Amino acid sequence: MTRSLKRASVSADLLGKVMLSMKLPGRKRVWLPVVLIFAPILAASVARGEDSEKKDAPPKDDYYTLMKVFVDTFQQVERNYVKDVDRRELLQAAIEGMMSKLDPYSSYITPEEMAQFSESVDQEFGGIGIQIYPDERTHRLMVVSPLPGTPAFRAGMLAGDAILEIDGKSAEGYSSDKAVSLLKGKPGTAVKLGILHPGTNKKEQVTLVRDVIHVATVLGDHYKSDGSWDFMIDKKDKIGYVRLTHFSRHSSIGLEKAINQLLAEGMQGLVLDLRFDPGGLFSQATEIADMFIEGGTIVSTKGRNTTERTWEAKKEGTFPNFPMAVIVNHYSASASEIVAACLQDHHRAVIVGERSWGKGSVQNVIELEGGTSALKLTTASYHRPSGKNIHRFPGASESDAWGVMPDPGYEVKFTPRETREYIDSYRRERDILSKSGPPSNDFKDRQLDKALMAVRTKLAEGGKSPGQTPKAEEKAKAAPAEKKAAASRPVAPSAATIGVG
What we know:
Strand content: 15-25%
Number of helices: 12
Number of strands: 22
Largest sheet: 7 strands, antiparallel
Radius of gyration: 34 Å
Mean pLDDT: 84
Structural class: alpha+beta
């Protein structure tokens, strides 16, 4: 605009000089034409300058303009805030602020949280393989159960043992998190524990060498005396029972092994329990669903910057078409819903229990700082084979389509009391490794009973599931599935704080 004004001024001066030098005979000098000619020229010149500036000025939401605002703010806070602030903390707070504007499942994983996140995905870590909790009455660390095949199991540690010392220091009053942080460590390193067995007053010193602990995600109803899971819940009718607690990197292998074991024992029907399973790896969900259907769509995904993709089942490696029931509840989410919805839409299994969580989005883990931190970012939504929605959007009502609903006649809702009793008493006690087997309990698992009834009904009708496939089977086959971490997963209620180390 400055240049335009200068040009306008020069033009006015020249015109003024010309007009001033012009004298008409018998008349005074004429000023009006100068004003009339100069005004339009100046206005036009100024207008052109303003237009030029508007074109040159970046928009308010321009990427570099916004980044400059961010950097300026960062510098002002760092330099002038009344107290010293840590740069790293400022940066992390800014990133977390950005993530808070997105959906609940997108998040920033700090360098301090990366190890724990990797453990949750891989379900493995360096430790001794033991479940512990702090006793509120005695303030001692108590052993819930050793994990089969681990250093703690081989050392003869038992449920009910009290850990009095860790590496020579009293463990009294330790929280689960603090104790777990001391029990975990690099495989091959040693940790010394002071143990008090039930019924004794003599402390025993035990030195354990840490190993890579693989947390099992494929479980049965209870442990056998040899430390293996008992997957045959009904010995008479030969009905198998498998619980899937998480979709980790090794879940599909573990499930395939368990079902092959059951088939070798003469299994005629199966109950797959996905209750309280918050999900996990997308690739594991597609692999597990593929085990039970010979063809057709497993799931499809659609994202803003990605093309729509469809995962199709393959006939090779499919298990026999035995009767099957899947149990879900409100805490079955994400990968659990992919499997349950697929088997329901293909009429491969009866769905029993309660409506599932309703998480129909896929998160990619994007590494930052060379892998020391990461973003867990929602990049796509997924849809069941029928094309119906799974995700429960904000404001969705109970009458809207979301989640996985039990089949008609197979809805069994637990009361809040039943849910707490199932977690804190019945299931917890049956998961304890004991030579005498699971303890007796008066709890009635109505959801499991309904699932067993569904399988027995199918067996009485002829022994096979219909195995029909929806029209979505006609969709084009896509490329192999990528491994994508699902998640901020729903947390099931629990009255006890149990740690695994």
